[in-house]
User: Fold CDP-alcohol phosphatidyltransferase family protein from Pedococcus bigeumensis.
Amino acid sequence: MVGQFVLLGALLWAAGASAAGAVVAGTCAVLGWVVLATALAEHDRPGLGPADHVTVTRGTLACVVAALTVDAAVGSTSEGTLVLLAGVALALDAVDGWVARRTRTASALGARMDMEVDAFLILVLSIAAASVLGRWVLVIGAFRYLLVVATWAMPWLGGGVPPRYWRKAVAALQGIVLTLTVARVAPDGAAAAFVAAALALLAWSFGTQGLELWRARPARTDALGDELAPAHEPGAQPLQVLP
Assistant:
């Protein structure tokens, strides 16, 4: 943890983040570590594995991107450093899984950490991209968290679905498209079309996942106590943070 906070401070200093940006980054980092410590205790894990350290580093980068997003919104910094750090964080998304497989340390907690960092980074990037294309882009970043809220009323949405590699590709696409939008590599009209297409794919991914969860929802009980509706599919995986 100490090493990650040192890295956070070094990156904020190198990027020239403002005091407000540093507060945002520090708050995000502290909250992230509180959640992580709680999860480690719940899983009876004494510490982090090799791949987990990569994932936590991605989270640190996402916190710096959040700081620079705040600074860019008030015009105190350019988007160049933001785009660079976001690109590194996105690239590292392929590294932690590789490290987990190579070291045979893959775990459910590690996968959950990876997906939560993805969700947070995409939320931050959607905020940054909203300054380019408008507030409608925020829907991309809000999708995962709206699903979490929906599970309060429909607990079956928190069930498990078999993994789908095309959903992982759709999730990765969101970060790439949003980063390119912030980098302004294409005219606003073309960027809006790309983001709209990415959003449509994300909606399709979440929609099909919701349908699978509905079909595999836990058995209900009728008035006589007999079970109705199907149970979870064999081999189902925990709910993905991003489809």
Q: What stands out?
A: The two ends are 29 Å apart (CA to CA). Confidence is low (pLDDT under 50) at residues 220-243.
